[in-house]
Write a structure and sequence with these properties.
alpha/beta, Rossmann fold, 8-stranded mixed beta sheet, globular
Length: 297
């Protein structure tokens, strides 16, 4: 992957064999997201301990992390969804490639936004079919999976990531989703800092119903992205520490946005007690970050 500023446009459409030859490895070309996936079929395998493996069904012997050396096509040829398969000492259940499975089994490099915060963003931003969403700081693409799942074929998802090594992982996770799900949104990816790619973004999409920022510092990104919000559109920030939350709040007000909500979401898991009944599972409360949502009115 190049480390220079570039733009990719992806469309979740079914591709033909003739389509594949149209695309090159030059990241400055325009192409569909699924064009980088050598097979449109993936298998999800679940271990008894809950670990999820997302395996591309390619007909060749290969080493798959956590499973060993195998040919997934030959191994899974007669294993249907809902059936078990034995690999080495492990017995695994084959499941359909739905959002929770692709999220649990995604490739990871940067810390990801998980279901707790992703669900909050989807609900608070009011994301749905046909929306246009700008996401800056995609990391490994955890939130991106949730966004793409709800936008539908007429939605638009624009992602921005300054670190090429993170973008490479995130785009691979999105390519998996594109191959597994029908009717995904149009996707544009820009490599660089948000403040430096605004003209390129605006050449592709003139305004957005939602903006999500997961960045080390938010004020300058809020300043340039707030004007791209449609009236009634919302901007969300993911802030690891309270000082970032305060700066994001102030920047939203300076940009003319109205802060609707700021705070944290706590997650506490419960389980069955050995002698009956239910009790909290031992471990810390599920705090991940401080969240903020503001609206353009």
């Amino acid at each position: 992957m190049k480390h220079s500023l570039c733009c990719l446009m992806f469309k979740s459409e079914k591709k033909t064999k003739s389509d594949v030859g149209l695309f090159t490895e030059n990241l400055n070309t325009t192409r569909r997201l699924a064009a980088h996936v050598s097979s449109e079929t993936w298998a999800v395998l679940l271990e008894e301990n809950g670990k999820t493996h997302v395996v591309e069904l390619v007909d060749k012997q290969q080493k798959i992390k956590g499973l060993g050396v195998l040919n997934p096509v030959q191994l899974l040829a007669n294993i249907k969804v809902g059936q078990m398969v034995v690999i080495g000492q492990k017995e695994l259940l084959r499941l359909p490639a739905r959002l929770p499975e692709l999220s649990n089994g995604m490739k990871r490099r940067a810390q990801t936004i998980g279901s707790k915060d992703a669900g909050f963003f989807v609900a608070k931003l009011g994301l749905g079919a046909n929306d246009r969403v700008l996401e800056a700081g995609i990391g490994s693409g955890g939130l991106s999976l949730y966004i793409q799942r709800v936008l539908g074929p007429n939605g638009v998802h624009v992602t921005v990531e300054p670190r090429a090594e993170h973008a490479e992982v995130a785009l691979e996770n999105l390519r998996r989703a594109s191959a597994c799900w029908d009717g995904g949104p149009q996707h544009h990816h820009f490599e660089g800092h948000l403040e430096g790619v605004v003209p390129s973004i605006q050449s592709a999409v003139d305004e957005f119903e939602a903006v999500v920022l997961d960045l080390p510092d938010h004020p300058s990104a809020i300043e340039v992205s707030a004007p791209m919000l449609s009236i009634g559109g919302r901007l969300a920030c993911y802030c690891p520490v309270t000082s970032q939350l305060e700066r994001a709040w102030e920047a939203c007000e300076d940009a003319g946005l109205v802060v609707e909500w700021a705070g944290e979401l706590m997650q506490r898991e419960w389980g069955r007690a050995s002698k009956g009944g239910m009790r909290p599972v031992n471990g810390p409360f599920g705090h991940t970050a401080f969240l903020l949502v503001a609206q353009r009115r």
